Amino acid sequence: MATRGRGGKFMKPKRGAKARKAAAIAKKKGPVQVGDMPSGSESESSDDDDMPANPNHTAKAAKMAAKPVVAGSEDEAPKKKSNKPTDMSQLSRREREALQAQQAKQRYEKLHAEGKTEQARNDLERLQLVRQRREEESARKAAEKAEREEHEKEKAEQLARMERQRAAAAAKKARGNKKK
User: Which stretches are annotated as coiled coil (predicted)?
Assistant: First the structure.
Protein backbone atom coordinates (compact mmCIF):
# COMPACT_ATOMS: atom_id res chain seq x y z
CA MET A 1 0.00 0.00 0.00
CA ALA A 2 1.13 3.49 -0.73
CA THR A 3 1.19 6.21 1.89
CA ARG A 4 0.17 9.78 1.41
CA GLY A 5 3.27 11.13 3.02
CA ARG A 6 4.26 12.69 6.33
CA GLY A 7 2.01 10.95 8.82
CA GLY A 8 -0.85 10.46 6.39
CA LYS A 9 -3.21 7.53 6.39
CA PHE A 10 -2.84 4.64 4.04
CA MET A 11 -4.63 4.94 0.74
CA LYS A 12 -6.78 2.18 -0.62
CA PRO A 13 -5.10 0.28 -3.39
CA LYS A 14 -6.69 1.05 -6.73
CA ARG A 15 -8.08 -1.90 -8.59
CA GLY A 16 -9.52 -1.81 -12.05
CA ALA A 17 -13.23 -1.38 -12.63
CA LYS A 18 -13.10 -4.21 -15.15
CA ALA A 19 -11.92 -6.64 -12.48
CA ARG A 20 -14.78 -5.63 -10.15
CA LYS A 21 -17.30 -5.98 -12.97
CA ALA A 22 -15.98 -9.41 -13.92
CA ALA A 23 -16.14 -10.51 -10.29
CA ALA A 24 -19.75 -9.30 -10.03
CA ILE A 25 -20.71 -11.20 -13.19
CA ALA A 26 -19.02 -14.37 -11.96
CA LYS A 27 -20.76 -14.07 -8.61
CA LYS A 28 -24.13 -13.65 -10.30
CA LYS A 29 -23.66 -16.69 -12.52
CA GLY A 30 -22.85 -18.89 -9.56
CA PRO A 31 -20.07 -21.36 -8.89
CA VAL A 32 -18.08 -22.62 -11.86
CA GLN A 33 -18.67 -26.29 -12.67
CA VAL A 34 -15.89 -28.61 -13.71
CA GLY A 35 -15.87 -28.88 -17.48
CA ASP A 36 -17.61 -25.59 -18.09
CA MET A 37 -16.33 -23.84 -21.15
CA PRO A 38 -15.94 -20.09 -21.18
CA SER A 39 -18.87 -18.55 -23.00
CA GLY A 40 -18.49 -16.69 -26.27
CA SER A 41 -18.40 -12.93 -26.66
CA GLU A 42 -22.04 -12.86 -27.83
CA SER A 43 -23.39 -14.24 -24.57
CA GLU A 44 -21.18 -12.00 -22.47
CA SER A 45 -22.42 -8.90 -24.23
CA SER A 46 -26.04 -9.87 -23.56
CA ASP A 47 -25.23 -10.46 -19.88
CA ASP A 48 -23.52 -7.08 -19.66
CA ASP A 49 -26.80 -5.42 -20.61
CA ASP A 50 -28.41 -6.86 -17.47
CA MET A 51 -25.57 -5.84 -15.18
CA PRO A 52 -24.99 -2.18 -14.48
CA ALA A 53 -21.65 -0.64 -15.39
CA ASN A 54 -21.03 0.06 -11.72
CA PRO A 55 -21.29 -3.12 -9.62
CA ASN A 56 -22.35 -1.00 -6.63
CA HIS A 57 -25.60 -0.18 -8.44
CA THR A 58 -27.99 -3.03 -7.90
CA ALA A 59 -30.87 -4.20 -10.03
CA LYS A 60 -33.24 -2.99 -7.31
CA ALA A 61 -31.85 0.53 -7.64
CA ALA A 62 -32.30 0.36 -11.40
CA LYS A 63 -35.94 -0.70 -10.97
CA MET A 64 -36.53 2.19 -8.55
CA ALA A 65 -35.01 4.62 -11.04
CA ALA A 66 -37.12 3.26 -13.89
CA LYS A 67 -40.34 3.56 -11.87
CA PRO A 68 -42.23 6.81 -12.65
CA VAL A 69 -42.71 9.05 -9.64
CA VAL A 70 -46.33 9.99 -9.01
CA ALA A 71 -47.03 12.98 -6.77
CA GLY A 72 -49.79 11.28 -4.83
CA SER A 73 -48.35 7.78 -4.73
CA GLU A 74 -48.79 5.68 -1.64
CA ASP A 75 -45.11 4.71 -1.47
CA GLU A 76 -43.89 8.27 -0.93
CA ALA A 77 -45.69 9.05 2.31
CA PRO A 78 -47.52 6.17 3.90
CA LYS A 79 -50.26 7.56 6.08
CA LYS A 80 -49.97 6.66 9.72
CA LYS A 81 -53.06 5.09 11.11
CA SER A 82 -53.59 5.78 14.75
CA ASN A 83 -53.93 2.50 16.56
CA LYS A 84 -54.95 4.22 19.78
CA PRO A 85 -57.92 2.58 21.39
CA THR A 86 -60.25 5.08 22.99
CA ASP A 87 -60.81 2.89 26.03
CA MET A 88 -58.39 4.06 28.72
CA SER A 89 -58.27 0.61 30.39
CA GLN A 90 -56.71 -0.96 27.29
CA LEU A 91 -53.83 1.54 27.18
CA SER A 92 -50.49 0.95 28.82
CA ARG A 93 -49.41 3.30 31.59
CA ARG A 94 -47.05 5.24 29.32
CA GLU A 95 -49.66 5.61 26.59
CA ARG A 96 -52.26 6.71 29.14
CA GLU A 97 -49.90 9.29 30.66
CA ALA A 98 -48.93 10.59 27.22
CA LEU A 99 -52.59 10.91 26.22
CA GLN A 100 -53.45 12.72 29.47
CA ALA A 101 -50.50 15.08 29.02
CA GLN A 102 -51.58 15.84 25.46
CA GLN A 103 -55.15 16.54 26.56
CA ALA A 104 -53.95 18.78 29.39
CA LYS A 105 -51.75 20.70 26.97
CA GLN A 106 -54.69 21.20 24.59
CA ARG A 107 -56.92 22.43 27.44
CA TYR A 108 -54.23 24.87 28.58
CA GLU A 109 -53.70 26.20 25.04
CA LYS A 110 -57.45 26.72 24.66
CA LEU A 111 -57.69 28.62 27.96
CA HIS A 112 -54.56 30.59 27.08
CA ALA A 113 -56.06 31.62 23.73
CA GLU A 114 -59.20 32.80 25.56
CA GLY A 115 -57.05 34.78 27.99
CA LYS A 116 -58.16 32.86 31.07
CA THR A 117 -54.77 31.63 32.29
CA GLU A 118 -52.48 33.57 34.60
CA GLN A 119 -49.76 33.69 31.95
CA ALA A 120 -52.21 35.01 29.35
CA ARG A 121 -53.40 37.72 31.74
CA ASN A 122 -49.81 38.74 32.44
CA ASP A 123 -49.07 38.82 28.71
CA LEU A 124 -52.12 40.97 27.99
CA GLU A 125 -51.22 43.35 30.82
CA ARG A 126 -47.65 43.63 29.54
CA LEU A 127 -48.92 44.28 26.00
CA GLN A 128 -51.25 46.99 27.28
CA LEU A 129 -48.35 48.70 29.08
CA VAL A 130 -46.22 48.50 25.95
CA ARG A 131 -48.99 50.02 23.82
CA GLN A 132 -49.48 52.82 26.35
CA ARG A 133 -45.74 53.52 26.48
CA ARG A 134 -45.56 53.61 22.67
CA GLU A 135 -48.50 56.01 22.46
CA GLU A 136 -46.91 58.33 25.03
CA GLU A 137 -43.60 58.18 23.18
CA SER A 138 -45.22 59.01 19.83
CA ALA A 139 -47.17 61.91 21.43
CA ARG A 140 -43.96 63.25 22.99
CA LYS A 141 -42.11 63.01 19.66
CA ALA A 142 -44.96 64.78 17.86
CA ALA A 143 -44.89 67.60 20.45
CA GLU A 144 -41.11 67.92 20.16
CA LYS A 145 -41.37 68.03 16.38
CA ALA A 146 -44.04 70.74 16.50
CA GLU A 147 -41.94 72.75 18.98
CA ARG A 148 -38.84 72.36 16.80
CA GLU A 149 -40.75 73.49 13.69
CA GLU A 150 -42.12 76.52 15.58
CA HIS A 151 -38.61 77.42 16.78
CA GLU A 152 -37.20 77.10 13.24
CA LYS A 153 -40.05 79.25 11.89
CA GLU A 154 -39.34 81.98 14.48
CA LYS A 155 -35.63 81.81 13.70
CA ALA A 156 -36.31 82.15 9.96
CA GLU A 157 -38.59 85.16 10.61
CA GLN A 158 -35.94 86.79 12.79
CA LEU A 159 -33.25 86.24 10.12
CA ALA A 160 -35.55 87.72 7.47
CA ARG A 161 -36.25 90.75 9.70
CA MET A 162 -32.51 91.26 10.32
CA GLU A 163 -31.82 90.97 6.57
CA ARG A 164 -34.46 93.62 5.83
CA GLN A 165 -32.93 95.90 8.48
CA ARG A 166 -29.47 95.47 6.96
CA ALA A 167 -30.82 96.14 3.49
CA ALA A 168 -32.62 99.25 4.74
CA ALA A 169 -29.48 100.45 6.54
CA ALA A 170 -27.39 99.85 3.43
CA ALA A 171 -29.93 101.73 1.29
CA LYS A 172 -29.97 104.62 3.76
CA LYS A 173 -26.19 104.77 3.72
CA ALA A 174 -26.15 104.72 -0.08
CA ARG A 175 -28.67 107.57 -0.27
CA GLY A 176 -26.71 109.54 2.26
CA ASN A 177 -23.52 109.32 0.17
CA LYS A 178 -25.27 110.66 -2.96
CA LYS A 179 -26.45 113.87 -1.24
CA LYS A 180 -23.00 114.88 -0.18
Answer: none
